[in-house]
Each structure stands twice: as structure tokens, then as C-alpha cells.
Amino acid sequence: MITSSENVRMGRAPRHTTRAVRVRQSRLKSSVGARMDCRGCPFVYTCIARSGLTDTSASPQIDGKHCEYRSGDLVVERGERLLDMLMVRKGSAKSCIGARDGREQVTCFHFAGELIGLDAIYEGSHPGEIVAMEDSEFCRLSFNQLMELAKRTPSIQSQLLRLMSRQLNRASQLTGDLSADERVALFLLDIKARLADTSREGRTIHLVMSRTDMANHLRLAAETISRVLTRFRRHGWINLSGRTLKSMNVEALERLRMGAPAVD
Hints:
Shape: globular
Number of helices: 7
Radius of gyration: 19 Å
Strand order of the largest sheet: 1-2-9-4-7
Number of strands: 12
Helix content: 25-40%
């Protein structure tokens, strides 16, 4: 079976057969598979492929391959062999698994500057699909090269462990018996923390995920999400217009996250 990673290496768009998302050859740019030029990357100093390098013109310690996808494109197929880790250079993606009742479960959102594929290390294959939520750019980093480098470089090994720990911590926060208000407050605070440094308008954050995906991820109904966000707006805890989050009352949301009454 030819996986989507192998398709990308050969310059072909991955096929998607399990859901309605269709990937066409025209959606992948001609730069797929080209070696990544790190000099223009906003994450040049934090990328794990360049760990320990301070000169932006120096070659990275792992060869990255550039790939671009359009919104809705399948980036990784469920069960695909772990050949590469994906560094999100621009845009965003979501990880999805199939629930027992046949529904799709959104397990994680991935944003610019983050590494995708950590959950595939244990079994050596991806447990679910990864789909681009908007036009996005990725840097494919060879998993084998990364592991070899981690053996020789303690700083990269430590960085990998920190990334794994952060992902586990984020996932565990939603496993408790939380109210809808607590779940939404936790989600908004997490998104703010992850996107604050990459938001071009400072405090303004674009929530690229749909209300349905947000609800799915938080294990809530879409109608519940809408009611909670409306209530948050009414109390002045968030300033949300459509998908644009202009500001939020962090102190109030922190109190909600902890299960305490928020103060208007």
C-alpha cells in the first residue's frame, strides 16, 4: 500500500477514501518534496530540526521537505506508517479518529510552530487522519533522522520529551468531569496561549476550526458551544465576532476553568 507520505515523496496527492474530503492533484503545489529553506521560517530558532543552531543561514540538522495543502486536504491517512514528523510552518490542521459509533472524533488541533506525529511513535503508525483546516504549509522531517539525532544530542531528546509531555497534559485536561463552561474556558485559554505569538494582529485570534469541530473536540453538542459562547459574550468575558476572537477576560476564564464563579 502506498501511503500519503510516500505519495508526497513522489509528488502525488494522497488519495482519501474513508470520508468526504477529497484531495486532488491540483491542490498540491509544485514545491512538494523540495528541500526546505529555513531562512524565511518564523520558527527558525525553535524548530527541533535546528536545535542548537543559532545561525539562520546554517543548514538544519535534519533535511526538511516542503509541502503545501489546501483547506480540507488529507495530510496523513489513518494507519499510515510513521515516516516523517510534520512541523506546521503556516496554517493549521486537525487530528481525527473514528469513534465506535462511526462518527469522527477530533482529538487535537495543530497550529503553526507545532510538531505533528508524536502520537504515532508507539505503534509506528498514525492512529487517525490529519486534515488541513486551512491552506497550510508543512515541513516533513524524517523520523529516522530525528531519532538518530536525538540519540546524539541530549537537547533534542529533552525537547521531544517536553513536546510529548505537553501534548499528554493538554489531552488529560479534557478527561475530567468538567462542565460545558469549564471545557470552553479551558479551550479558549489554551488556544490563546498557543496562538498569541503567531497572531498578526496582536490580541486578535482567528478560530479557524468550525463550531462543529470545536464541539466534537470538547465532547459537547454544537448548540451547547453556541450557548456558552453567547453567554460568555453577554458577560463581557470574550469579544467574539464570527470566528474572530478580539479579546478575552483571562482572569474570568481562569476562574471558570477552575470551577469557581467568574466575576463580571
